[in-house]
């Protein structure tokens, strides 16, 4: 191994250095403070767990993204978390076991075997909120509203929110009764929005059948007009589909009322998290960035795998990505430079200042250095026998 090999980091893994690290930490604190002001309690799940726990309820969507290792104590397989949502569900269902509404929030690193897309790394800093114990639209509205509030805190401009409903695709596929391989191919094509592939897979479905409706629905997306078009495509199909469309309309109207500055749309090909989401799903985007900056939805079934079925909804986001995309300005005062003077009075002044200020104490090796290079904009100087703070200028 050469010397250069010793400091090389794996692809998609990075050191976060000043001042970026300070901006990320500042946003993490503000996002968590925002969530806690809404009544969400902070939890810190472990970095590693047994695989059975990490994958429970997710339909193994996370399996390819999870690094696996053998526990030297038990011989069982463990995984480094790739998503903290299943951990929050386990905490609610098994560790806390409380009745009624539980609100949890979290923030920390997750690890992915490969980046989700070209603009992200493999070590996102995930933050999110989960609300357990309510199946109401009010709970969905609360979670979406809180997500949009955290994006405002992050300084993201011109947010666009896409809404979808898992029950629409689930109902049509169930009615069509495709064989397993065909259903998998349809799912893959629809998730990639590949209309030509869907036409080939569904071309022989008779008009008015579930397959035909699915093919037409794949072409439907956009603003409020898309919801009207979807109603025409799904007219007379089933009460479950009508109910899902009604919910999308109600939620979009409430959001438009409460967040008039945000644009809304509907994407009926949105199948992210299909294997564990059970109802309304949503994703936020900003112009010029192809992947969502925050996403979430309802996942009522996941708690049953932990022995306690609970309705649940939540969202997650990547703090690192938000800092890169946002226009957030962090006003931070520089530190105070203290000279390498052995005056006992100086020690007392430094101790008092450090209760509220950052103070950098000079060392002998700092002689002749510019305090500004140490992040300082003020200095302690002795005047008339007293140590006072003055501007470096």
UniProtKB/TrEMBL annotation:
UniProt-annotated location(s): Cytoplasm
UniProt xrefs under CDD domains: HisRS-like_core
Main location: cytoplasm
Gene Ontology molecular function, alphabetical: glycosyltransferase activity
Pathway: Amino-acid biosynthesis; L-histidine biosynthesis; L-histidine from 5-phospho-alpha-D-ribose 1-diphosphate: step 1/9
Record's keyword terms, sorted: Amino-acid biosynthesis, Cytoplasm, Glycosyltransferase, Histidine biosynthesis, Transferase
Pfam families associated with the record: tRNA-synt_His (PF13393)
Domain Class II Histidinyl-tRNA synthetase (HisRS)-like catalytic core: 12-322
Further comment: This function is generally fulfilled by the C-terminal part of HisG, which is missing in some bacteria such as this one.
Family under the similarity heading: Belongs to the class-II aminoacyl-tRNA synthetase family. HisZ subfamily.
Function description: Required for the first step of histidine biosynthesis. May allow the feedback regulation of ATP phosphoribosyltransferase activity by histidine.
Assembly and binders: Heteromultimer composed of HisG and HisZ subunits.
Protein name: ATP phosphoribosyltransferase regulatory subunit
Origin species: Marinobacter koreensis
């Amino acid at each position: 191994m050469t010397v250069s090999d010793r400091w090389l980091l794996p692809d998609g893994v990075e050191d976060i250095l000043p001042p970026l690290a300070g901006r990320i930490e500042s946003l993490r604190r503000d996002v968590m403070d925002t969530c806690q002001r809404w009544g969400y309690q902070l939890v810190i799940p472990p970095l590693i767990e047994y695989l059975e726990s990490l994958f429970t309820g997710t339909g193994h969507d996370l399996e390819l993204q999870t690094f696996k290792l053998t526990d030297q104590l038990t011989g069982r397989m463990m995984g480094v978390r790739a998503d903290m949502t299943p951990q929050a569900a386990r905490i609610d269902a098994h560790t806390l076991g409380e009745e009624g509404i539980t609100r949890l929030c979290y923030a920390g690193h997750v690890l992915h075997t490969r980046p989700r897309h070209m603009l992200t790394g493999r070590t996102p800093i995930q933050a999110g909120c989960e609300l357990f114990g309510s199946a109401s639209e009010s709970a969905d509205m609360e979670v979406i509203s809180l997500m949009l509030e955290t994006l405002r805190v992050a300084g993201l401009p011109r947010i666009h929110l896409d809404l979808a409903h898992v029950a629409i695709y689930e109902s049509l596929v169930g009615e069509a009764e495709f064989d397993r391989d065909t259903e998998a191919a349809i799912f893959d094509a629809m998730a990639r929005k590949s209309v030509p592939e869907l036409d080939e897979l569904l071309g022989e479905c008779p008009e008015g059948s579930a397959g035909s409706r699915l093919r037409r629905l794949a072409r439907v997306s956009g603003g409020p007009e898309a919801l009207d078009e979807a109603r025409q495509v799904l007219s007379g199909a089933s009460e479950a589909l009508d109910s899902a469309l009604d919910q999308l309309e109600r939620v979009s109207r409430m959001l438009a009322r409460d967040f008039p500055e945000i644009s809304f749309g509907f994407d009926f090909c949105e199948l992210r998290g299909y294997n564990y989401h059970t109802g309304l799903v949503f994703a936020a985007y900003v112009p010029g960035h192809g992947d969502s900056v925050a996403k979430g939805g309802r996942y009522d079934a996941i708690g049953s795998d932990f022995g306690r079925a609970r309705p649940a909804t939540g969202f997650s986001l990547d703090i690192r990505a938000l800092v890169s995309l946002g226009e957030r300005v962090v006003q931070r005062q520089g530190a105070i430079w203290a000279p390498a003077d052995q005056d006992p009075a100086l020690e007392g002044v430094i101790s008092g200042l450090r209760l509220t200020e950052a103070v950098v104490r000079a060392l002998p090796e700092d002689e002749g250095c510019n305090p500004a290079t140490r992040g300082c904009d003020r200095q302690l100087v002795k005047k008339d026998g007293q140590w006072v703070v003055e501007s470096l200028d």
